[in-house]
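Handout, page 2. Input:
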Amino acid sequence: MMSSDGHWTEQVTGKIRTGRLDGAWQVRDGLLITTITNNDLDMQVPSTHSSRIIRIDSHEYVLQSENGNTPAVFKKVEP
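Output:
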C-alpha cells in the first residue's frame, strides 16, 4: 500500500518466504524511487531501488525496473 505521505507497506506471501516490508517512496525525473526501511525478511536496510514509470492511473501503475525486461503491473486492491 502506497500512502500519499510518501510511505509504503507491502505484505509478501510466497513459497520461499513470507513477511512485511515498510519504507518510503518518491517520484523524481520519471523514476519511482523506493527505500526499504524496515522488514522481517532478513533484508539489509536501508535498501533503495528505482524503476522507470511507464504509466500510472487510479487503478494501477506500470514500472520498468533498471535491470528488468518485462514491465511490472501493480493493481490497486480494493478493501
